[in-house]
Design brief:
The chain has 387 residues and is an alpha/beta fold. The protein folds into 2 domains: 201 residues, Rossmann fold (3-Layer(aba) Sandwich); 176 residues, 3-Layer(aba) Sandwich (Rossmann fold). The protein is 42% helix and 15% strand. It has 16 helices and 13 strands. Strands 3-2-1-4-5-6-7 form a 7-stranded parallel sheet, with helices on both faces. Helix 13 links the parallel strand 12 and strand 13. Helix 1 packs across helix 16 and helix 9 crosses helix 14. The protein is globular. The mean pLDDT is 90.
Length: 387
């Protein structure tokens, strides 16, 4: 295929940190680079420094990389001294204006489609870019509604991509004028790779435990998991069951809360793990207790390794992923009593766990990376700029 006939697409993401959005983009790009009808470039605010992503892009030199703001002194690293900070602000404004002109006339001059990959992160830079523009929203509807200005950004894009049907339905009800702009695209999952990671991960030295693989932060509502587990233990005559938390964050805060509970000796914080799949694979259930989510990858990973999910019924992803409760158990956000009841059902065999697992496994085809990448490519090609 000639270069002229290829769709030239640029993905834009401010930074490449170790996180869900970044890993999802990499999985998408891994499929797109295999196609012969696309020419891909990538634009970030700052230089990529995480070794795993540096290595990945080095293996894929066909993806052209650009750093929009290569000078860190004029980026986000502002000085504390107010006079120096003021000078930096002035210089940064001029510097960013010049770099945006460079982006528009050099980096994106011949691009057909620009993908602003995370929550309007490049909205200022892309305002005057002539290429067709796609915005990708990776967060929940709650975050979108929390800031009134977000809806005003939608009009500057040709397509608005979100992660769940629930988001799309509520969005169309609230803003019918944009109903033709919004589409749902699931995050791609490499199910075989997840299972391979699980098989290579060390197992936990315990027979009976629940696991919570999560960043330890307020929006994840870890306290409800702690209270729910404590209630479960007390109502089941102190069973031989542990509660294992896998993830970084404010460990000291939640360990202090756990130490006040009667079940504190059964609660363990193991910190962030390079490969948490071993913890997830052997658990009686994986627990997600967030107040809001986009499309929580941790639920899909648990499904892939054959572990039942117990999740808060927050907007928007869990109910959709767990098929209204047919592929996992749902509880009201913040309801520790209901969470404890679900733990009790699994521990005491009061629910058909294998049926939940089978339904979950069959439903994973929705998230197949190859099919989703094909759908992504199709959406990009329909928005191709006509010269």
């Amino acid at each position: 295929m000639s270069r002229k006939s290829k769709v030239r697409v640029a993905f834009c993401l401010r930074d490449m940190q170790l996180g869900g959005v970044e890993s999802v983009m990499i999985r998408t790009l891994e499929q797109l680079v295999k196609r012969d009808d696309m020419e891909i470039s990538f634009v970030s605010y700052v230089k990529i420094t995480e070794p795993v992503y540096v290595d990945w892009f080095n293996v894929h030199p066909e993806i052209k990389r650009y750093v929009l703001y290569p000078c860190p002194w004029l980026g986000t690293k502002l000085r504390h001294f107010f006079l120096l900070r003021f000078v930096q602000h002035v210089m940064r404004d001029v510097y960013r204006w010049a770099r945006r002109v460079f982006l528009r006339h050099k980096i994106l001059a011949n691009v057909d489609v620009v993908v602003d990959y995370y929550d309007f992160g490049f909205r200022k830079e892309l305002r005057r870019v002539s290429a067709k523009k796609i915005a990708w929203w990776h967060s929940s509807i709650n975050k979108f509604l929390a800031r009134a200005s977000y809806i005003n950004y939608v009009k500057y894009y040709d397509l608005f991509v979100t992660l769940t049907d629930g988001f799309v339905d509520e969005f169309k009800t609230r803003w019918p004028q944009y109903k033709k702009k919004i589409v749902r695209m699931y995050n791609p999952m490499d199910i075989d790779a997840i299972r391979a990671r699980a098989n290579s991960a060390p197992s936990v030295g315990a027979d009976n435990y629940f696991v919570c693989v999560s960043r330890l932060a307020g929006d994840k509502d870890i306290e409800t998991v702690l209270r729910g587990f404590d209630k479960f233990v007390n109502e089941n005559n102190n069973p031989d069951v542990r509660m294992v938390f896998v993830g970084g964050g404010d460990v000291d805060k939640y360990r202090a809360i756990a130490n006040k509970l009667s079940a504190h000796e059964k609660i363990e914080f193991v910190g962030a793990q390079k490969n948490p799949m071993g913890f997830m694979r052997g658990a009686m259930a994986n627990i997600l207790s967030s107040y809001s989510e986009g499309l929580p990858t941790v639920l899909l990973e648990a499904m892939a390794v054959g572990t039942v999910n117990i999740s808060s019924d927050c907007k928007n992803g869990p109910r959709e992923i767990l098929l209204d409760g047919d592929a996992g158990l749902l509880f009201a956000p913040g309801n520790a009593d209901e969470l404890a009841q679900h733990m009790d059902k699994i521990w005491n065999n009061k629910i058909a766990v294998e049926k939940l697992k089978n339904t979950a496994t069959k439903s994973l085809a929705r998230f197949d990376a190859v099919q989703i990448a094909t759908d992504v490519a199709g959406r990009i090609k329909t928005k191709r700029r006509i010269s």
